UniProtKB/TrEMBL annotation:
<feature type="domain" description="Galectin">
    <location>
        <begin position="5"/>
        <end position="131"/>
    </location>
</feature>
<dbReference type="GO" id="GO:0030395">
    <property type="term" value="F:lactose binding"/>
</dbReference>
<dbReference type="InterPro" id="IPR044156">
    <property type="entry name" value="Galectin-like"/>
</dbReference>
<dbReference type="GO" id="GO:0043236">
    <property type="term" value="F:laminin binding"/>
</dbReference>
<dbReference type="GO" id="GO:0005615">
    <property type="term" value="C:extracellular space"/>
</dbReference>
<keyword id="KW-0430">Lectin</keyword>
<dbReference type="InterPro" id="IPR001079">
    <property type="entry name" value="Galectin_CRD"/>
</dbReference>
<protein>
    <recommendedName>
        <fullName>Galectin</fullName>
    </recommendedName>
</protein>
<dbReference type="InterPro" id="IPR013320">
    <property type="entry name" value="ConA-like_dom_sf"/>
</dbReference>
<dbReference type="Pfam" id="PF00337">
    <property type="entry name" value="Gal-bind_lectin"/>
</dbReference>
Amino acid sequence: HIPQGPVCTNLGLKPGQRLTVRGKIAPNAKSFVMNLGKDATLLGLHFNPRFDAHGDVNTIVCNSKKVEEWGLRKLSLTFPFALQITFDVNQNDVTVRLPGHQFTFPNRLNLSVFDYFDTQGDFTLQSLSWE
């Protein structure tokens, strides 16, 4: 069972806006998840850093979910996680900015607004801000 963190709804994030997440990763973290989308069933970005989970070590798994239909994309990284993560919402993708690294993930569901954000797993949310 993965512990559920805060759930935010009605964010209203649109292209050109940015969500900044700050928090702490548990000392013996296995993995954590951040979801960004329309709601819990339509996730434009499922961001899942895995330190040692599901057979993945030091891997970030990114995905999208439409009801129960998942795509798949994996990125292997060194983990810079004293944590601030920024999600920049663009017209066709989301740019994920980590300390010393960034990548984009396509907006596969063509969401015009990201209203939903949640965290799960070995991560403690300290602050959430958007602009």
